[in-house]
What we know:
Blueprint: E1 2-5, E2 10-14, E3 22-32, E4 36-41, E5 48-53, E6 58-64, E7 69-74
Antiparallel strand pairs: 1-2, 2-3, 3-4, 4-5, 5-6, 6-7
Amino acid sequence: RYVIDLDEKTSTYTRFNNPNFISVLPIAFEQHGKELIQVHILEDGFDYGLFLNPIEENALWYWYDEDMTTVKKITQFRFVKSS
């Protein structure tokens, strides 16, 4: 399970089969208009992140390798706005 927290600027990953395993990484994000947020997960040696559309509630996961870019649509997620 991933939790992207734009307020705290963190990405937290917890394994379903091992809830004691938690990885927390810093993030940076850019707002592209009202409909698109690009989240960069800041991990040394990796280039990946998410494109989030909070208006239409959809998300794409992307990562770059040397010779290709991979993009996957995330189908199980939810947006939670801070109060």
